[in-house]
Amino acid sequence: MRLDKFLCHSTDLSRSQAKRLIKQGQIRVQAQIIKDAAFSLNPEDQVYWGQDQLHCIGLRYWMLHKPTGYECTHLETWGSYPSVLSLLKVTHADRLHTVGRLDADTSGLLLITDDGHWSHQITSPRYQCTKVYRAEIATPLTDVEAAKTACLQGIMLHGEKQPTRPAQLEIIHPTCIRLSVQEGRYHQVKRMLAALGTQVVHLHREQIGTLILDADLAPGQARALTTAEVQQLAEPKRIP
Predict the structure, then answer these.
(1) pTM over 0.90, yes/no
(2) Nearest residue to 109 via CA among 2, 16, 219, 190
(3) Residue limits of the RNA-binding S4 domain (predicted)?
(4) CATH number of 3-54: 3.10.290.10, 1.10.10.10, 3.30.365.10, 3.40.980.10?
(5) 52, 103, 115, 216: which is the annotated catalytic residue?
(6) What is the dihedral sign for C-alpha 33, 36, 37, 38?
(7) Within its chain, how far is the Cα of 56 from the centroid?
(8) What are the tens digits of pLDDT across the range 51-63?
(9) Contacts (Cβ under 8 Å, ≥6 apart) of 193
(10) Which CATH class for the 61-232 domain?
(11) Which has fewest Cβ within 10 Å: 10, 43, 84, 239?
(12) Of 6, 211, 37, 16, the residue nearest 109 (C-alpha)
């Protein structure tokens, strides 16, 4: 880990403040003053700020049952709705980010972390990480088989240059469907269903990759992911 990143994970310092301290010669690694912010630490290295030894807060991974009425924004961002990060009562919540986004009127599984590389593997369309949504729709689909075929073949959405990747459509009952997609375009599920002739009344995400939202996790509640869950989500199939 870079020295400046270590400081950010072990103190309340911003990245710019950490770099300034390092440049000023206030940080020691073992007994040596290091003035290079990009200095690479070994796991056994001891880092000191003055006489105080610093200890890194490890990377964190959370599953949140997102309720409606919250936005996927940073804590310091003011929007029409409060940030979902305000639901997590943890230290340094301002350093966390959501893995992708859910609209304010959408509920369900939301992952939260401070590991940018891990979140990229889940959100990048180059990695085939499936997201599963359940949607209540205004009117039944007029031709279910044609809709399923269209999803599998890809739908050309308005304003897009490429059709959607193959998606799987399942009918739960006439006004409730389940849609599995492998990308995250802007309002993708809502736009796909609009192209199929209906409108979304409510949207709920049930699953990301192999991870299914806990049935006993109430809206607004969160839990830490296990090491196995983190590793499973970090190993999607990459598209060449």
Answers:
(1) no
(2) 219
(3) 1-63
(4) 3.10.290.10
(5) 103
(6) negative
(7) 22
(8) 999 887 778 999 9
(9) 135, 137, 177, 179, 199, 200
(10) alpha beta
(11) 43
(12) 211
